[in-house]
Amino acid sequence: MIPSRLTPRRKRVLRQATRWIALLGGVALAWPWRWGSTGSVLLPALSPFIATASGISVRTVGILAGLAIPVVVLAGVFPRWFCRYACPTGLLLDGAQRLRSPAPRRGKGWPPVGRWLLLLTLGGACVGYPLFLWLDPLAIFNGFLNAWRRPLAVGALLGGLGLPLLLALEIAAPALWCRRLCPLGATQDFLFAGRRFLRRPRRGGKGRDVREASPNLGRRWFLAGASAAMGAFAARVARGGDRTALLRPPGALGQGRFTGVCVRCGNCAQVCPAKIIKPDVGPGGLAGLLAPRLRFDRDYCRADCCLCGRVCPSGAIARLPLPAKRRQVIGLAVVNLDSCLLAQGRECTACLRKCPFEALEMVSSDGGFSNEPRVIAVRCTGCGACEVVCPAEPLRAITVQPSARALLLEDPPFPRNDLARPLSRTAG
Predict the structure, then answer these.
(1) Per-residue pLDDT reduced to its tens digit, 44-98
(2) Helix orientation angle between 48-58 and 183-193, rounded to the nearest 10 degrees
(3) CA–CA separation, 310 vs 326, rounded Å?
(4) How far is CA 303 from CA 28, 68, 371, 379, 399, in A?
(5) By the 8 A CB rule, do 39 and 46 touch?
(6) Tens digit of each residue's pLDDT (9 = 90 or more) over 230-256
(7) For residue 404, which of 126, 137, 183, 327 sits 20 to 30 Å off, Cα-Cα?
């Protein structure tokens, strides 16, 4: 990567300058106070680990996968070049390593765990559930920066603990993560090792192929295949246990796949103008820990916004155009008539007036002596506008529940413009 004509000192200076530029560029892309910017997707999209495993999982190759191609090509020529010159997480870990004086080199005595994590993830990706995709260092870096988005929340801060934990690990065991644990580094090792199969076989002293003469090659391929198969089996078990129904962002993969493909980078929560995307810290269980979910406490999913899909680097949230996003079903609104003000004879039509898709209607009950709201299921997308505006207390009379429905059966009417602003919980 660095011209050989340079002196060793100049090579070190150029390398450090390149790494600092990469760090500042990563911070600029993922800066959490840049509302509406989609640049935060670029850094994790560079990872061939994310691009490969997510592409296998979702059975498609998106436009973002093209960003990882230069990394793949250079990794096949220069060993771990991304770790040496472009990884912002690696630079921060090197700084933490210098806090120890003298800093012992502990990374060499550990087994190559990162390689097994890579193989297990790829094996799980074959059945749609990459097990350790969230361990990518670029996603961890993004998650740390996005944890400081405003307003600060406990769940978001928990999502940013990955980088501090890596820094603590680096202080306790220097070079352990980068040398032995990092799956992105292991991906580069496999890409660099694969170039031998693209070269003309060298001949040994007796005319034998050197690759065929290696007694460990067959064993390595057997262990790699066994690890991938084990990853596929473990992914099936994890996927089968992930059945908790939660509201996910529009375009999210189905239950049982979303939590595996999501890398917990925090990009979707950062760009959401309504701030309704929150990290899951309990209801989804261990498999869904810190994966994004929707909560309609103060706002709803805007009909004129599809930013969350544009910043997802792994394809866990589909990159939908706005017309397709408006047809995407999040859940289904459910009315509790016991707490509904209209059903109790009080004057309230808040949910009917505020529904952007006209998915609510008023029907007569009790022989025409009272009215109550009813949900038109084929129009409801579960956007949450009705829930957030409902004035019933302490529990809202209409809530959005998870639904297994696919796209809407018919085109919804164009959303009314009066819902382009935040809603307030007012009756009448």
Answers:
(1) 999 999 999 999 988 888 788 889 999 999 998 999 999 999 999 999 999 888 8
(2) 90
(3) 15
(4) 29, 32, 28, 13, 18
(5) no
(6) 655 565 565 555 556 789 999 998 877
(7) 126
